[in-house]
Write a structure and sequence with these properties.
single chain; alpha/beta; Rossmann fold; 2 domains; 5-stranded parallel β-sheet; 14 helices; binds cytidine-5'-triphosphate
Length: about 400
């Protein structure tokens, strides 16, 4: 296995004569173990056949923004990429990227991607030296894009000068460097993190249940981020229809009691327990063996208390600061912070992440969140509206600080 095993590379190819060299780039990346998703612009399709890249990468070549929208949309492609390389990059594509334009699959995908981007320009010397190109390249560099080359040499038509795309080996080296500079700290290496996510369902009869609106997105983002930071991660997922993040061990559960069993079975080996799941506080006292019928009248469902798993874990320790470090969540609608401080104390957690679920851009089923992280030590960290994976990393920053050395 090469050193790029497990790395997903978005290979953008744009319309220049050097596009033929993208085949070599694809081959080297595949050799190094990477999964390569080629995206061609319309111009690139005139210089290199999709069949060539498909044969070399074993993956479908994409070029149409209108294709397979539910399957692998530009957003999914952009999110899946660990690194993107545009090889070769025309002056026009560079200008579009600098301006944030999104008029084809490649530029739309890159606008949706947050991974490091390597751009290998190729164009005539005059175009490269044009003030517009220079300004666009400066914009990209200022944004953290890795611009590599161009090299000098023979250009199309026999001219000689700056503008040749860098050699495939140099482009791969730039991809490795971009990945290394973007690699997250492995600050949870050697730690075991248990994360609960989703919402429990408490059966009423064989077809009905009491549930809640939690989708699991926040907990899954935390599990993903913890795994990226080197932790061994167990994800206890309650009714979450989300894909398991790479490197994470998943335990599916349905009810609060099942969730409790799963967590208690894992807690002894855990350094950290993050309780992002929305656990039902009550369950029907009895579950009807067969489906309740209208003809039998309006049923009265008697409820009974579920154990509070977080409070139980908190009570099992002699106080905050002991292992495992406990992170609770609170979804609140009224006076979230004051209730958060109370809950932190009452449940004996080390950290409590408070979510104001009355906001439309935070809480259930959204991709963003706005939270305040309260600490048993009196600390208060506010994470302004951000993507859930960004929020996940900020929560883990607090966890790492709490774990100490
Ligand atoms: N929690 C739990 N077990 C339960 C209920 C909640 O472990 N039976 C955990 C959740 O996973 C979350 C935290 O406790 O981390 C807060 O959940 P929340 O429902 O907001 O707290 P409640 O105990 O229900 O508090 P209240 O009813 O006062 O809002």
């Amino acid at each position: 296995m090469g050193d790029l095993a497990g790395v997903r590379v978005l290979l953008g190819v744009t319309g220049g004569i050097a596009a033929y060299k993208a085949a070599l780039v694809a081959r080297l990346l595949v050799h190094a173990g990477a999964t390569v998703d080629p995206v061609l612009t319309r111009g690139a399709e005139r210089f290199i056949g999709a069949a060539t890249l498909e044969g070399l990468t074993g993956r479908r070549v994409r070029s149409d923004v209108w294709e397979d929208i539910p399957g692998e949309s530009h957003v999914a492609l952009g999110r899946a990429a660990d690194v993107a390389l545009i090889y070769p990059a025309t002056a026009h594509t560079i200008a579009k990227l600098a301006g944030g334009l999104a008029d084809d699959l490649l530029t739309t995908t890159l606008l949706a991607a947050t991974c490091p981007l390597v751009v290998a320009p190729a164009m005539h010397t005059e175009m490269w030296q044009h003030a517009a190109t220079a300004a666009n390249v400066a914009t990209l560099t200022g944004r953290g894009v890795h611009v590599i080359g161009p090299a000098s040499g023979i250009l199309m038509g026999g001219d000689v000068g700056a503008g040749r795309v860098v050699e495939p080996e140099d482009a791969i080296a730039a991809v490795r460097a971009a990945l290394a500079s973007a690699a997250p700290d492995r600050d949870l290496q050697g730690r075991t993190v248990v994360v609960t996510a989703g919402g429990t369902r408490e059966p009423i009869d064989p077809v009905r249940y009491l549930g809640n609106r939690s989708t699991g997105k926040m907990g899954f983002a935390i599990a993903d981020a913890a795994a990226r930071r080197g932790a061994s991660v167990h994800l206890v997922a309650a009714n979450a229809g989300l894909p398991t993040p790479d490197g994470v061990t998943r335990h599916d559960v349905t009810t609060a009691l099942e969730l409790r069993d799963a967590v208690l079975g894992l807690v002894d080996r855990a350094d950290v327990v993050v309780k992002a799941a929305a656990v039902a506080d009550f369950r029907p006292a009895t579950v009807a063996a067969s489906k309740l019928k209208k003809a039998d009248g309006v049923p009265v469902v008697e409820l009974t208390r579920n154990p509070d798993v977080l409070a139980e874990l908190g009570a099992a320790r002699s106080g905050p600061g002991e292992r495992p470090l406990l992170v609770g969540f609170a979804a609140e609608t009224d006076d979230p912070e004051q209730r958060g401080w109370d809950k932190l104390k009452r449940k004996g957690a080390d950290l409590l992440v408070v979510n104001d679920v009355s906001r439309s851009d935070a809480g259930f089923a959204t991709d963003t969140n706005h939270v305040v992280i309260l600490g048993a030590d009196g600390s208060r960290v506010e994470v302004a509206l951000a993507a859930k994976r960004e929020v996940a990393d900020r929560i883990l920053d607090r966890v790492v600080a709490g774990l100490g050395d």
